[in-house]
What does this fold into?
Amino acid sequence: MRIALMESSLGTPDRPTVFSAAAEAGADGVELVIAEPAGIAELAPPAGLENLAAQAAQHGLAIPSVAYLANNRTDALIRRSEATEPAMQHVRDALAATGRLGAGVLLLPFFGRATIEQESEFQVALECLNELAETAAEAGVVIGVESLMPKHQKQLLLDYTGGGTDVRHYYDVGNTVLRRQDPATELRELGREGICGVQFKDLRLRESQPADYAVRLGEGQVDLRGVARALEAIGYNDWVTLETPPLDDAIATAKANIAFTRKLLGM
It folds into this structure.
């Protein structure tokens, strides 16, 4: 396995600072972030892609994935409207840029305005993802869906989009704990073919308050040792991305989280 840091885990350094910071922390790669549709322009131009890839390689890093967090700003992929097709095109552009960058996964999250709560929203999301799967295949990229979907919807998504070939789950262990479920059990149920990536974060659940994410790995309520055993059981040997908070010292925190993860996974 290899360990990547989500760009936001290093605070807000501008590129190429993010690559030097990730290398200093001991990461193997960086997951780049597109926070809004306009951010695709940073990845889309060929010269920009070549420059980003060169910056990463200069520091001995890979770019395994791109997180299209802009999807959280719109409900266009869960409710059909005049905004749906423009939003779909933005995702297509992000898929094409991700492929040209050499990254294998576009993380497509469904949170914020894109949170799926009604069955009708789930059905629209399925239809949109099924349409996007063709573009993903052409780009050589897997769409990694991150959401708070319950287990039965996760399996339905895989079935609807063709068994998980071009659309799979980008599995965040913290999200499952947020639903008061066990990530190790769910990972075993989804299996290796159901996921295209794994995200580590820890959290503390608080009664009648939002969860507290300002913790290092191993200090919260996520059973990461159980997760490690589950990953071994399903034969997962790919990227683990840390979506962890920078806290007071981003480099020191990232180093500690990477060291914890390497020990946990026997790397």
Notes: The chain has a mean pLDDT of 93. Strands lie at 2-6, 29-34, 65-68, 105-109, 142-146, 167-172, 195-200, 204-206, 209-212, 239-242.
